[in-house]
Amino acid sequence: MASGGLQLLGFVMAFLGWIGIIISTAMPQWKMASYAGDNIVTAQALYEGLWMSCAMQSTGQIQCKVYDSLLKLESSLQATRALMVASILLGLVGMFVAVTGMKCMKCMEDDQVKKMRMAVFGGVIFIISGLAALVATSWYGNRVARAFYDPYTPVNTRFEFGSALFIGWAAASLAILGGSFLCCSCPRRETSYPPARGYPKNASSTGKDYV
């Protein structure tokens, strides 16, 4: 029962992490304009994401523009996109695989060992999915930080971490932790002993010695 509860907890955490990765990928707030300069006065907030850039006016109106051409984007941004999309697809596969191996599901009840191995395999896929999202968000955040501290970057074009990055980091951690819990349901190897052999009874002594 304890392993079943740990398995269910791991699946819920991994599923929530997968949902968070989707939300983070779709959000445009991957980086936001920094107003570190004393002489900067603006009536709008600028955001940039993986798919679009947005400007929010002081009145609350938001205007977004989708990036026109994929080939004009930076290679690092394209790689971040690819990693996040791959993370989402891996999470989807891991969810279906893990559901098949859950103890609360009736699928594959006739072979419990294979059923538990499916749950473990789903956990491994969730871990890979979380790692892909963690690499993508960390890489993007590192680029934002390097550009911010670069003395050659104009003050009015500096950006800071957006809320999508923090959601992505939290979601990736949940996916990795949930996948690890699923892997803890790995079936233990049982030592198989050969069947005990019945020893033949000693033949009754006839009292005769044979040479």
Automatic annotation (TrEMBL):
InterPro entries: Claudin, Claudin1, Claudin_CS, PMP22/EMP/MP20/Claudin. It is found in: Cell junction, Tight junction; Cell membrane. It holds the Pfam family PMP22_Claudin. One of its GO terms (molecular function) is structural molecule activity. Keywords: Cell junction, Cell membrane, Membrane, Tight junction, Transmembrane, Transmembrane helix. The chain crosses the membrane at residues 7-27, 79-99, 119-141, 161-184. It is a multi-pass membrane protein. One of its GO terms (cellular component) is plasma membrane. It comes from the Eukaryota. PROSITE patterns: CLAUDIN. Gene3D superfamilies: 1.20.140.150. Belongs to the claudin family. Claudins function as major constituents of the tight junction complexes that regulate the permeability of epithelia. This is Claudin. It comes from Malurus elegans (Red-winged fairywren).
